[in-house]
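Bumping my old thread because nobody answered last time. Still need a sequence for this structure:
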């Protein structure tokens, strides 16, 4: 390292470094975005193909593959600006109402009512959730973590209903894989090969983690994770209780499921 020469031109070299960093960051984020989408799409294609091989309907496999691809962007919901946030929010807002169609239909809503409900969900996600993320998350905070990947997966598990548990699990796994591919890539990207040796960037260890630096963010993350896990766990036992796995019982179970959830949520609030 040329420390003396760097000191001699302190101002100019600092400016140069800052300028280079800014350019590099811009380049990195763009390259990252493309890489994330590419990798999660490939993972989604493999997952979909695997599901099809194991005898699942091709529509479910296609949806799972698409979910995996889209989930590759989800962690960057916490980046306050730019393409990742806009695209991730737009995709999530469009996809989640579609995932819910099945469940809404089973609850017995008319098609027009479903349009209303999904439209409302879209606007809530597009603007409400986007604003929440903009305000309360830090880039590479707890939304870039392993528990966050479980949160996203559990959320999709709860949102999507299916006659058969397997396509539903495939969607859940797809979101988890897509999400994990993103934070894994972020972590790989933080190791650089420079001048013949590996250098850890400042961002090393900020993606593939269980705990972040802020206590409140950690508490909120695990609170959300445990809440969703409890809901998902009850969902399983309730489904088994009502014979959800038997095809002929199907039409009634979603309604029963909603009733039980209502009762349960009443109990939890008290
Ligand atoms: Zn990221």
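Sorry it took so long. Here it is:
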């Amino acid at each position: 390292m040329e420390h003396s020469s760097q000191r001699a031109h302190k101002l100019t070299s600092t400016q140069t470094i800052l300028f280079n960093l800014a350019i590099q960051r811009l380049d990195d984020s763009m390259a990252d975005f493309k890489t994330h989408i590419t990798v999660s799409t490939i993972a989604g294609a493999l997952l979909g193909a695997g599901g099809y091989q194991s005898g699942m309907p091709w529509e479910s496999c296609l949806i799972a593959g698409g979910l995996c691809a889209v989930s590759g962007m989800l962690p960057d919901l916490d980046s306050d600006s730019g393409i990742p946030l806009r695209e991730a929010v737009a995709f999530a807002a469009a996809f989640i109402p579609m995932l819910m169609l099945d469940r809404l239909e089973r609850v017995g809503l008319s098609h027009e009512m479903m349009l209303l409900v999904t439209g409302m969900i879209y606007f809530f996600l597009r603007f409400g959730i986007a604003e929440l993320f903009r305000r309360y998350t830090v880039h590479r905070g707890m939304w870039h973590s392993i528990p966050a990947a479980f949160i996203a997966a559990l959320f999709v598990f709860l949102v999507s209903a299916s006659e058969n548990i397997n396509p539903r699990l495939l969607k859940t796994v797809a979101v988890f894989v897509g999400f994990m591919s993103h934070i894994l890539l972020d972590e790989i990207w933080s190791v650089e090969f420079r001048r013949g040796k590996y250098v850890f960037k400042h961002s090393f260890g900020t993606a593939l983690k269980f705990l972040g630096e802020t206590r409140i963010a950690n508490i909120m993350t695990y609170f959300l994770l445990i809440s969703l896990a409890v809901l998902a766990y009850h969902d399983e036992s309730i489904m088994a209780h009502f014979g959800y796995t038997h095809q002929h019982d199907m039409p009634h179970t979603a309604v029963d499921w909603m009733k039980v959830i209502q009762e349960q949520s009443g109990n939890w609030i008290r």
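The chain has a mean pLDDT of 76. Let me know if any region looks off to you.
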